[in-house]
Specification:
The complex is a heterotrimer of chains A (about 950), B (about 300) and C (about 240). By secondary structure, chain B is mostly helical. Chain B has 10 helices and 1 strand; from the N terminus they run αααααααβααα. The longest helix of chain B is centred in the last third of the chain and has 28 residues. Chain C is α+β, with helices and mostly antiparallel strands. In chain C, the strands form 5 sheets. Chain C has a 3-stranded mixed β-sheet. In chain C, strands 2-3 form a two-stranded antiparallel ribbon. In chain C, strands 4-5 form a two-stranded antiparallel sheet. In chain C, β8 and β9 form a beta hairpin. The chains are: A alpha/beta (about 950), B mainly alpha (about 300), C alpha+beta (about 240). The complex binds ligand MGD (2 copies), iron/sulfur cluster (5 copies) and molybdenum atom.
Chain lengths: ~950, ~300, ~240
């Protein structure tokens, strides 16, 4: 007999209909193809044509169905009736919700716009939310970048006018040596996986520097289990070796960077450390042939890279000379850093030798002529095939900004920025300082019922750009762009609740938040954060008076809101991934994309963007109303996307512009733009001609193109900043120079950290921990199959990560008599938690770690009260203080990078002890949250996809 | 392996039933049994009752008992199917044998041959049952030479104990049967000692190294899911070494020790024989159930290697 | 009939590259997603929002640590049905529900015939069979038999869901019976191996071992000083191009 007796339908119809849109199970923003059958989502797969994911889909993306149908979805606007945090709500109509919000917002706007703090999470509508906040007039707006990875954004922008994140990518096709620092998943996770895979398949070398050997690090050719917070030492030790051996791309440095700029050596004066400039304010170099100063970057200059010169009595030295002096110092020798970093000196020497060999002996040559800014024609593109990438392992430390700069400096020394095989810019980057805004929000810019004159966030270039009032008090509630965090380019969302509660620097009326679980996994010092949210003043009023929150699901934060605005799921709304925000461009060309509703909501919910447009219209925001005061975008966000112009010709979407939809980048609004996107599978991608693909910062062809597309203001070359004059200006202020100076108590901190050349200093927690009371480092990692808190409501993903263990190395286990599944008490200077351990080999021996955001509060996310996430799962966040211990004057700085204000999550130091669990419960445990009415009854058996009678 | 009660009950009850059936068939063929219909009725009701109850209970753990008939189709390759076929076929001669005995009080000639055929059927069925386990290479505790003898002997012994009790209750006691039973019990003892020592010393065929191809220095890091799953529940059952040791001793005592002693006393103190033999039966029943529980609980499936069990 | 076919026309199967698998679970979840509406629909989940959520999955990602010189390495290890040539799960099945297809070697369960006796799951060494308690039948990886031949989807999508979705391209699909197929060549080149060959199941799926680690492929272990005698940065002018 054969198998033909069995009936197998090998070609069943899969879908009644397929629609393209963009994934939002994380911020990678892959293209997806959604199969719809019998009105339900049958299957979601990657869009093969999409520039980001090229058809693949990660675990989260593949679990989109379970997100979309989650029983934790909010179903109707809610008004709090119980105490904050109790979860007791009354369902209200949208009309009422909008009325309440409008009333609160209008009152503050009329009183003083700064009484509103509007902060958003990892949303992708920052172009809209920031415009809305500007129109409102409050200085208090930012997204989540301050606690996420602003160190990388700022470290990059101040060094090479772009950044890691998704603003660059390693040249996956040509790289021969790839160094990855502190990355578990990252935003660009699908492209990174594809890239690493292609590297390994090609036989290129991949080295991962990470205290933990999981995920990407597991497949690295070499894993360096570094001690957290010490990467700066390791990197600068490589720099030490390369300079010692003369293995730097000296011509590249002379041409494309500020390495030859002359730096004034006049200690104690206000010009010390600044560049020597000519009358036109052009930086000068020393021309070796002419033996005289000359403007930098002249076509036929022969800049000196070392030496001491005198110009008009001013002693000067080239930047490179200073660098060599600094980094050749013994403190950066491999032997000196080996112990601290946990990386053997021999390994550091070998890696330096490898880098030098690959960069200088295995160069990549592409037969493609190009023209630089001087008009010089280069007949080939010659590249140094060493590339690097780094993220939160670097950024989430209080020394992250300088460490990030150090990585870029290393890349620049090797000549591998945007050269074949190196790190490639993704448009609209690079953006020089002339194309970047400075922050807005000084007292003089904030007026009742009046929009702010510029964007909130920007790149500070000198102390005068700080947002301070006359007596030096921060003007923003989060103290971003103050002396506490002068270069806080993404704001400091992690400080908002605690500052608002402490009314420091002032009090607010309305805290308006969107898509961020600030009472739980995105808070530092979680337990106190919850207390602040519920704390009342003498008259029994909450210290933070009104909280409006938009979420799509019943997260821990919802319970703390007074007014809850339920959002749609990502399959139910329009969204836009704009070049004005965090774009999805490729190194080969710009791209943007949209989401559109592929299914209709079955609940009384409203896309948050529509809510904002409606509130804006009700509040009378000039940009959002017509002349006769009506809502200017009655078609909601889709209408806005197509028709709103930021500047003439510039809108949210760069593709299919102009009346006929044939223009890209700039062009008149196209009323049919959204339809054109939908026809084009919801994205737009425009590949550059080959001549534009590398050397973009100095490639005239590219610069002209970028200007035409309005990516940059002027088609001028963008040189790389090894030495940061901006930082030096702050240092000078710290030394008591210039018109805007820090108060005395903050001077040392500014002077120390604003080193114009990258340097390493111990993370603050290490300094505090002098007596080694807390001998271990504790860090988290993102699991590939979970996205922060919002993955736990997902029936499939929570089977993979239902709870988390504390991973410890064998040495730690042995020292404390711990074995798998034992309970351990972990304490830090901020508190104590209890968790179950798991012993492993592949971890730095001074480090313990766990998966991020798996632990849940009981009652949240419409999970069972005994959900493992809440009973055995845990967060490290309870241990992480949001503030540093008091300074001598009693002042407590934020537990953040002193330059950018980046939250220093991974500075955490802990002590571990074996303990017993009477109940098998992790600690701390909090009161279970109540459940609002209207949440769906969670299925006890889930038969998703079961064939219905009709379908059979 | 997860010791499912339905399967334990099935194998022990039907084992005893088939054992009794075989003893009835053979002894009757040899002319060693009373021909009294009430004796026959009781013996066959108990035997076929145990068999039927066992078979029925074995369907309880099926996902689709109503399709159980399908299980007869694959006798060419599947021992489970063969067991099913054999068990059903055995009802044929057993029924004729019983008909003759109970309704006609005829136990010789053709009727006796039917009894013998039923005995053969019983042996084949129990053999098939054992082969279901023996054929599983995945479970070293089952895939060995002791399992088939074990199943056959255990069925025989429980059948003998029952028979002894039956004869004594009917006042037809034959001491030699008790002696045979005691000797068989001693064989059980030897066999279980050998079986368990094999289990304790057996070198695993598959190891995590062969399961993963990653060499000797491999150990589990994280399981695929933090929660449990069917495989872990079904195959990942673990019994603590100390607990197993205790249960083995209990099994020896209840299955071999106590019945042997009780039967010995019964031989020398025939007045209490019937009671003692019934007690011996009860003890053996609990003993064999314990033995069978261990047979499952101690059996490790190679798949547990993938879940961190270092020793299968 | 649960006797195995003597030969199959093709030996379709997967090749899994342990050298580049990053353990991301994409293949496992995408498999679940495809199959919960596919041949074995649904892949039931029990108490999915409860304290102990479990469900039917055809592909699970294990992970191991392996000693490797001074340190260890972490290896991710996806595992689904290996579509064995000598599949014991087929021969033990009493009903004929479990069978191996003659045309392509795919091992399937015909749910309509399955009595849910679980014996096949006992017979499989690899843990590739999943009992659906709700439906009372055995389910398993179908090698996406309802995708690979499905002319309702574009031709380029006719590969198993797990293969299509793997972000690292660590999974390959093809005919391992054809020595000239891409997958066979890959197995030959990378010394692909069988899991538990001693179980005599002759699995069709192959695993590619992690590559030996190259700490430094060639070249110097330490850089030489550039200007031992040339003074501070003596090399700079020598190297500058004009
Ligand atoms: N699957 C998934 N993807 C995500 C997210 C998610 O939740 N899930 N979140 C998204 C978000 S919001 C962000 S910000 C990105 C972040 O993406 P990642 O940067 O990948 O974020 P983390 O998981 O924090 O990874 C930090 C890594 O750095 C290591 N590390 C910690 N300290 C140090 C150190 O001092 N030195 C070095 N070299 N390494 C160190 C940790 O072991 C860890 O592997 O990921 C995004 N992508
Ligand atoms: N210990 C530790 N803590 C950390 C980190 C760490 O590495 N370690 N990482 C930090 C970083 S980098 C980040 S970015 C944060 C992330 O932390 P959060 O930004 O708080 O991330 P989520 O937990 O995903 O919460 C986002 C909220 O958005 C809601 N949401 C999801 N989809 C939608 C939607 O479509 N509309 C609306 N309106 N709401 C939606 C979710 O329900 C959830 O409440 O965590 C930070 N916290
Ligand atoms: S990486 Fe995954 S979750 Fe993120 S957008 Fe892409 S497919 Fe979606
Ligand atoms: S999708 Fe690919 S990389 Fe991810 S676990 Fe599966 S095989 Fe490994
Ligand atoms: S892996 Fe298991 S289920 Fe698959 S064919 Fe082999 S034995 Fe059968
Ligand atoms: S569970 Fe189903 S497929 Fe498996 S052996 Fe039993 S009848 Fe066959
Ligand atoms: S081949 Fe199909 S059914 Fe099998 S593991 Fe891959 S996706 Fe799942
Ligand atoms: Mo983040």
């Amino acid at each position: 007999m054969t198998s033909t007796q069995h009936n197998v339908d090998t070609a069943p119809p899969v879908a009644d209909e397929t629609k393209y849109t963009t994934c939002y199970m994380c911020a990678c923003r892959c293209g997806i193809k959604v199969h719809l059958k019998d009105g339900k989502v049958r299957y979601i797969e990657g869009n093969k044509n999409h520039p980001v994911n090229k058809g693949v889909l990660c675990a989260k993306g593949s679990a989109g169905i379970m997100q979309h149908y989650s029983p934790a979805r909010l179903t109707k606007p809610l008004r709090r009736v119980g105490e904050r945090g109790s979860g007791e709500f009354r369902e209200i109509e949208w009309e009422d919700a909008l009325d309440i919000a409008t009333a609160w917002l209008a009152e503050s706007r009329a009183r003083s716009p700064r009484r509103l703090a509007f902060f958003t999470g990892r949303d992708q509508s920052q172009a809209l939310t920031s415009l809305w906040a500007q129109q409102y007039g409050t200085p208090n707006y930012a997204a989540h970048g301050g606690f996420c990875s602003v160190n990388m954004a700022a470290g990059g922008m101040y060094t090479f006018s772009s950044a890691f994140w998704e603003f660059t990518e390693p040249d996956w096709k040509h790289t021969k040596y790839f160094l990855l620092f502190g990355v578990a998943e990252d935003h660009d996770s699908n492209p990174i996986k594809a890239g690493i895979s292609s590297l390994k398949t090609r036989g290129a070398k991949f080295v991962s520097v990470n205290p933990v050997q999981t995920g990407y690090s597991a497949i690295a050719d070499e894993w360096l289990g570094i001690t957290p917070g010490t990467d700066g030492l390791f990197i600068l030790s490589l720099v030490h070796e390369l300079i010692r051996a003369g293995k730097v791309d000296i011509d590249y440095l002379a041409r494309y960077t500020n390495a030859p700029y002359l730096v004034i050596d006049a200690p104690g004066t206000e010009n010390d450390g600044l560049f020597l400039r000519d009358a036109k304010d052009q930086p000068l170099i020393w021309d070796r042939r002419k033996d005289s100063p000359a403007p930098a970057h002249g076509a036929d200059a022969a800049p000196a890279m070392k030496g001491e010169f005198e110009v008009d009595g001013v002693k000067v030295r080239p930047v490179f000379h200073l660098m060599a002096e600094k980094y050749l110092h013994d403190r950066y020798s491999p032997d000196a850093v080996a112990d601290k970093t946990g990386i053997k000196a021999a390994a550091i020497r070998r890696i330096a030798a490898d880098l030098a060999r690959v960069a200088f002996e295995e160069e990549v040559v592409i037969d493609q002529p190009w023209t630089d800014w001087t008009g010089r024609r280069h007949d080939k593109m010659i590249g140094r095939p060493v590339s690097m990438h780094a993220m939160r392992g670097i950024s989430a430390h209080s020394n992250g900004f300088q460490t990030c700069r150090a990585i870029h400096v290393l890349q620049i020394l090797l000549g591998s920025i945007d050269t074949p095989g190196g790190l490639r810019y993704k448009p609209p980057y690079p953006k020089g300082f002339d194309s970047l805004p400075r922050p807005t929000g000084r007292p003089a810019e904030v007026h009742r019922n009046t929009p702010l004159p510029g964007p909130h966030l920007g790149f500070v270039q000198e102390p005068a750009d700080l947002l301070l009032d006359e007596d030096g008090t921060p003007t923003r509630i989060d103290k971003a762009f103050s002396w506490d965090a002068p270069l806080a380019a993404h704001g400091m969302m992690h400080s908002v609740i605690s500052n608002a509660w402490a009314k420091d620097p002032y009090e607010i009326d309305v805290l308006f938040m969107y898509m961020s679980n600030m009472s739980w996994n995105s808070a530092m010092n979680t337990a106190d954060t919850m207390k602040m949210l519920t704390d009342k003043d003498g008259d029994g009023d909450y210290k933070i008076p009104n909280i409006i929150y938009s979420d799509a699901y019943y997260s821990e934060m919802v319970a703390y809101a007074d007014l809850v605005l339920p959002d749609t799921t990502y399959l139910e709304r329009y969204d836009c991934i704009s070049l004005l925000d965090r774009p999805i461009s490729e190194a080969d060309g710009p791209a943007d994309s949209i989401r559109h509703p592929v299914v209709k909501p079955d609940r009384d919910v409203m896309p948050f963007q529509d809510v904002l447009l409606e509130l804006g219209a009700r509040l009378g925001f000039s940009a959002l109303i017509t002349e006769d005061g009506k809502n200017r975008y009655p078609g909601g966000y889709a209408d806005y996307l197509a028709n709103h112009e930021r500047l003439p010709g510039i809108g949210m979407l760069a593709g299919f512009r102009g009346g006929n939809g044939k223009l890209s980048g700039t062009g008149a609004p196209n009323p049919n733009q959204i339809e054109r996107y939908i026809e084009n599978e919801c994205f737009w991608f425009e590949e550059f001609p080959d001549e534009l693909k590398y050397f973009k910062n100095v490639n005239q062809g590219y610069l002209d193109y970028a200007k035409e597309k309005a990516f940059i203001r002027e088609a001028k070359p963008i040189f790389l900043s090894l030495y940061s004059e901006q930082l030096q200006k702050f240092r000078l202020a710290g030394q008591g120079h210039g018109p805007v100076q820090p108060p005395h108590s903050k001077r040392d901190r500014i002077e120390k950290h604003f080193d114009p050349l990258p340097f390493w200093y111990p993370p603050f927690e290490d300094e505090i921990n002098v007596d080694r009371e807390y001998p271990l480092h504790a860090i988290t990692q993102r699991p590939a199959a979970m996205y922060h808190a919002w993955g736990s409501q997902n029936a499939w993903l929570r089977q993979i990560h239902g709870d988390n263990k504390l991973y410890i190395g064998r040495a730690v286990a042995k020292a404390h008599g711990l074995k798998d599944d034992d309970w351990a008490k972990l304490s830090s200077r901020n508190g104590q938690i209890k968790a179950q351990v798991k012993v492993m080999d592949g971890v730095n021996d001074k480090t313990v770690w766990t998966w991020n955001a798996i632990g849940k509060r009981r009652g949240a996310w419409n999970l069972d009260k005994d959900a493992k996430e809440a009973t055995t799962g845990f967060l490290l966040n309870h241990l992480i203080d949001d503030l540093l211990p008091a300074q001598s004057g009693g002042y407590r700085y934020s537990n953040s990078d002193p330059i950018t204000g980046q939250a220093a999550w991974y500075d955490l130091r802990v002590r571990i002890e074996k303990t017993t669990a009477d109940a098998e419960l992790s600690e701390p445990q909090f009161e279970p949250l109540g459940q609002p009415d209207g949440l769906a009854e969670p299925a006890s058996i889930l038969r998703y996809g079961k064939k219905t009678e009709a379908a059979e | 392996m997860h010791p499912a009660y339905s399967v334990i009950f099935f194998t022990t009850a039907s084992g005893a039933g088939y054992g009794l059936l075989a003893v009835l068939g053979v002894l009757n063929f040899a002319g060693l049994l009373p021909t009294d219909r009430w004796f026959g009725l009781t013996g066959l009701v108990i035997s076929l009752g145990l068999i039927t109850a066992g078979l029925l209970s074995s369907t309880f753990h099926l996902g689709h008992p109503e399709r159980a008939w399908r299980a007869f189709s694959q006798w060419r390759s599947s021992w489970l199917s063969r067991e099913g076929v054999a068990s059903v076929i055995t009802y044929g001669p057993a029924a004729i044998f019983g008909y003759g005995w109970v309704f006609l009080e005829q136990t010789s000639g053709l009727w006796a041959i039917m009894g013998l055929l039923a005995a053969v059927g019983a042996v084949i069925t129990v053999y098939c049952t054992s082969m279901i386990y023996v054929s599983l290479r995945t479970i070293a505790a089952w895939h060995n030479k002791w399992v088939t003898p074990g199943y056959l002997l255990m069925a025989l012994v429980t059948g003998l104990v029952l028979m002894d009790a039956l004869l004594r209750v009917f006042g037809a006691a034959t001491d030699w049967l008790s002696w045979v039973t005691i000797i068989s019990l001693i064989f059980v003892l030897i066999l279980k000692i050998r079986y368990w020592s094999l289990l304790d010393t057996q070198k695993p065929v598959s190891t995590l190294a062969t399961a993963t191809g990653l060499g000797e220095g491999v150990k589990m890091f994280d399981p695929p899911h933090t929660g449990t799953n069917y495989l872990r529940e079904e195959m990942g059952y673990k019994v603590a070494r100390r607990h197993a040791e205790k249960l083995r001793k209990i099994a020896y005592a209840l299955l071999v020790g106590i019945p042997s002693v009780l039967l010995l006393i019964a031989i020398f103190a025939p007045a209490t024989g019937a009671l003692l033999a019934v007690l011996a039966t009860l003890s053996a029943a609990i003993g064999v159930a314990t033995e069978r529980w261990l047979f499952f609980a101690e059996a490790k499936h190679v798949v547990s290697l993938y879940y961190g069990d270092t020793n299968t | 009939m649960t006797s195995l076919p003597a030969t199959t026309e093709k030996k379709l199967g997967l090749v899994i590259d342990l050298d580049i698998c990053v353990g991301c679970h994409a293949c496992a979840v995408n498999c679940k997603e495809w199959n919960t509406g596919g041949y074995h629909a649904p892949l039931t989940d029990t108490t999915p929002y409860g304290a102990q959520a479990t469900g039917v999955w055809f592909n699970r990602i294990h992970s191991f640590e392996v000693e490797d010189g001074e340190t260890s390495r972490t290896v991710y290890f996806p595992k689904s049905c290996l579509h064995c040539e000598d599949a014991p799960c087929v021969t033990v099945c009493p009903t004929g529900a479990s069978y191996k297809r003659g045309e392509d070697g795919i091992v399937l369960v015909d749910e309509s015939m399955c009595i849910g006796c679980k014996l096949c799951s006992w017979a499989c060494p690899y843990g590739a069979r999943e009992f659906d308690v709700d439906v009372g039948v055995m389910k398993k990886c179908t090698l996406c038999v309802d995708r690979i031949y499905n002319d309702n989807i574009p031709e380029r999508d006719r590969v198993p869901a797990c293969v299509a979705t793997c972000p690292a391209s660590a999974r390959h699909f093809g005919d391992l019976g054809d020595p000239n197929s891409d997958v066979s060549k890959l197995v030959a080149a990378r010394e692909g191996f069988d899991l538990m060959p001693e179980q005599d199941c002759k699995p069709v799926n192959k695993y590619l071992p992690p590559r030996a680690r190259s700490f430094s492929k060639e070249g110097q272990r330490t850089l030489d000083d550039a200007s031992p005698a040339g003074g501070f940065l003596g090399w700079v002018d020598r190297l500058l191009s004009d």
